[in-house]
Write a structure and sequence with these properties.
Blueprint lengths: L3 E12 L8 E10 H5 L2 H6 L2 H7 L13 E6 L11 H11 L3 H16 L7 E9 L8 E8 L5 E4 L3 E4 L10 E5 L1 E4 L2 E3 L2 E5 L6 H5 L3 E3 L3 H20 L6 H15 L11 H14 L4 E6 L2 E6 L7 E6 L2 E6 L21 H21 L5
Antiparallel strand pairs: 1-2, 1-4, 3-11, 3-12, 4-5, 5-8, 6-7, 8-11, 9-10, 13-14, 15-16
Helix pairs in contact: 4-5, 7-8
Pfam families: DUF3898, DUF3900
Protein name: YetN
């Protein structure tokens, strides 16, 4: 995938203080056309980056809430055109530029908007108009941000090391690509792709009129809370019922807790049915939990089929069914095990719990 650079503007952003809390300014270093770019060192620095950005995998609904790469969609009011969105117009102006002066002016406006973003860090901001000539003459816009790298030095004979000021690297480059390329030759003018591995959401703050699809954890949370609300309303139709109000308070506390225990409210069939609705959205969705110190990670679709949670007197037991074990990194004597039958283990566990309970009862004074 070979992108041909039409225009490129290079800016340096200076920030006083930490995370953009001080004064902010920018300086325009150069604007290049295709001939200037081909002869510049910037081409060596950006070599392969455009293809890497366009090929970077992204999910419409990310698997994690803090996914570094996302697809954004321009927000438009009902019955309004795409041109009513200010962020779209900014990119459209960059795409429409036909000479260096027009492109530089459009870039100036973008940089000024970017400086209004909270938590801006110093670094290089590179704005590029590039074309993938193998498919279309319609240009793409790449906005690339390289933060200054601290404590970068070069080796010298006189002082051994010499600090390099305003050093940048393509390794942690943040990027915006517009329009979003679904696949080679297929673009969506309503969407763009952003990538920012930093915890600070610079581009999301910068693009105020762009929305992003929910992550899968957020979608699952919404569905689960919907199931819970339906369960409450079905069991207690009267909203003024004291039991219902107490149940809603308990569930609200449960939902707000980072670490949660098994609630013991639904029958297994109810859980399987609710899980099936979620699995239909994403078949490979995972479930993770811990039983005491043992961590379990598997597919939600396996619950009730290969994964079972049971009660053993006043404790829990977990049953996992499968065809083969896989051991990795380091040997364990468990690998040499000749497994007992399920019935044998179940009987032994029941006897163990019975003896433990008898021991507790035997220690209890008769009075």
């Amino acid at each position: 995938m070979n992108f041909q650079v039409d225009f490129l503007s290079f800016f340096v952003i200076q920030v006083d203080g930490k995370e953009g809390q001080g004064g902010k300014s920018y300086k325009h270093y150069a604007t290049m056309d295709d001939y200037d770019y081909d002869e510049s060192d910037v081409k060596k620095f950006l070599d392969g980056e455009f293809a890497r950005i366009s090929k970077r995998k992204v999910e419409k609904n990310p698997s994690t809430e803090q996914a570094p790469t996302k697809i954004g969609r321009f927000i438009v009011e009902p019955e309004h055109e795409l041109s009513s969105n200010p962020n779209f117009n900014m990119f459209a102006r960059l795409r429409a530029a036909e000479d260096k002066e027009d492109f530089k002016n459009a870039c100036d406006d973008l940089v000024r908007m970017y400086l209004d973003t909270s938590a801006v860090r110093g670094g290089a901001l590179i704005i590029v108009q590039a074309t993938l000539n193998t498919h279309s003459d319609d240009p793409f816009i790449f906005v690339l941000k390289c933060d200054f790298e601290p404590k970068i030095a070069r080796i010298t004979e006189s002082s051994l090391v010499s600090e390099v000021e305003m050093a940048i690297s393509a390794r942690n480059m943040k990027s915006i690509m517009y329009p979003y390329m679904l696949e080679e030759g297929m673009n969506d003018e309503w969407e763009l792709k952003i990538h920012q591995s930093s915890h600070a959401r610079y581009f999301e703050d910068f693009l105020k009129f762009v929305t992003y699809e929910q992550s899968m954890p957020e979608i699952v949370n919404e569905h689960v809370m919907g199931f819970v609300q339906n369960y409450v309303e079905t069991k207690w139709p009267d909203a003024s019922n004291e039991e219902r109000q107490q149940e809603e308070r308990d569930l609200e506390l449960w939902a707000a807790s980072e670490k949660r225990d098994l609630q013991g409210k639904w029958e297994p069939l109810q859980v399987v049915e609710a899980a099936q609705h979620i699995v239909e959205l994403k078949p490979e969705i995972e479930v993770r939990f811990k039983l005491d110190d043992t961590a379990v990670r598997g597919l939600l679709s396996d619950f009730g089929a290969k994964l079972h949670i049971t009660k053993l007197h006043d404790r829990y037991a977990l049953i996992i069914e499968g065809d083969a074990f896989t051991f990795e990194k380091g040997f364990s004597p468990i690998e040499l095990l000749q497994p007992e039958s399920f019935e044998t283990v179940a009987e032994r566990l029941k006897e163990k719990r019975q003896h433990e309970n008898e021991g507790v009862d035997g220690d209890t004074p008769p009075w």
